[in-house]
Specification:
With 308 residues, the chain is mainly alpha-helical. It has one domain. The chain is 58% helix and 6% strand. The protein has 9 helices and 4 strands, in the order H-E-E-H-H-H-H-H-H-H-H-E-E. The strands form 2 sheets. A two-stranded antiparallel ribbon has the order 1-2. Helix 4 runs antiparallel to helix 5 and helix 4 runs antiparallel to helix 8. The protein is elongated, with a radius of gyration of 27 Å.
Length: 308
């Protein structure tokens, strides 16, 4: 045992020594770690397989490269402008009246996006799984799946933006309501309306929050987990609505983004991992695969039995 571990063990023993005299101590000990009463470490079901393996690492790396390429390459073609279904009616009803208000709505959508993307990474994986539930292996697997989902979501969104090149709704006002020589009107960003990246990433984050909770019971409270899951989707929907209010996306852009983010957020963790077993399955142990031999007397001789 290393010196840091010895020091931690010494501190734990010193602090909790009086409690051990009680035949029913209020503290449960895990190796080298003290766990608060009622908080149980979670285990990663071996049947799920590890996300830190070279096929998934390569897959995630390719997705990250595609996402970067999608953002770096300008939209191809002259683009198209127009509404689909109720796009124009929704724009007229939701779009804010003044340009300062619309820009403020975009800023609020940035804040919501950052909060939603950060929640499954920082709160669920690092704080809840890694620290509160003292399961670093589970935290590592969650972080890898989070990176995978966000990379694939943004790769699909970025490449679609590049290939489809739909003009943003505000472009109709360039030269009249908006100065024609601004970055919004004159830069490549004007052709990145389809589909909404903010909405896609927000719904992917909400799906990750829900799928981790459903499969790992992170909070040890299904009701609380359900509230967090529902709240995350509500905030993701608000993010999409703010993109319409800010006049940077149509309703169809937001709906497609929500669908892509939700499908990727639920689909990838399920396909690669969570469909293979359940959290309630007991963890595998090495003893189950080791050969055993038992000898017992029988009459004038011995009988042998075991597993190999």
């Amino acid at each position: 045992m290393s010196r840091p571990r010895l020091f931690v063990a010494f501190v734990v023993c010193t602090v909790h020594a009086p409690a051990w005299a009680d035949p029913t101590p209020p503290v449960t000990l895990a190796p080298s770690l003290a766990v608060e009463p009622g908080v149980q470490p979670i285990h990663w079901n071996p049947a799920w397989g590890t996300a830190v393996r070279w096929p998934e690492l390569v897959f995630t790396g390719v997705a990250i490269g595609a996402a970067i390429a999608g953002q770096a390459i300008p939209p191809i073609g002259t683009g198209w402008r127009g509404s689909i279904g109720f796009d124009e009616d929704v724009r007229s009803a939701v779009r804010l009246d003044s340009e300062p208000e619309r820009r403020l709505a975009r800023d609020y959508s940035d804040v919501l996006l950052t909060s939603l993307v950060g929640f499954p990474i920082i709160m669920d994986a690092m704080v809840v799984a890694g620290w509160a539930r003292q399961s670093s292996d589970v935290a590592k697997e969650m972080l890898m799946m989070d990176a995978e989902v966000f990379a694939v979501t943004m790769a699909i969104q970025g490449l679609t933006n590049t290939l489809v090149h739909r003009e943003r709704p505000y472009v109709v006002g360039c030269g009249t309501e908006l100065p024609a020589n601004t970055q919004d009107c004159d830069g490549s960003t004007r052709g990145r309306s389809f589909f909404s990246g903010h909405t896609a990433a927000s719904f992917a984050a909400a799906a990750l929050i829900c799928t981790h909770q459903f499969n790992l019971d992170l909070y040890q409270n299904p009701e609380m987990g359900g509230v967090v899951c529902a709240s995350s989707f509500l905030l993701a929907g608000t993010t999409g609505a703010l993109r319409i209010a800010g006049d940077v996306h149509n309703l169809s852009d937001v709906l497609v983004g929500a669908a892509v983010g939700t499908l990727v957020g639920f689909g990838l963790p399920w396909f690669f991992h969570y469909r293979h077993g359940d959290i309630d399955d007991p963890p595998e142990t090495s003893a189950s695969t080791e050969p055993t031999l038992r000898l017992s007397p029988m009459g004038l001789g011995l009988s042998a039995s075991g597993s190999f």
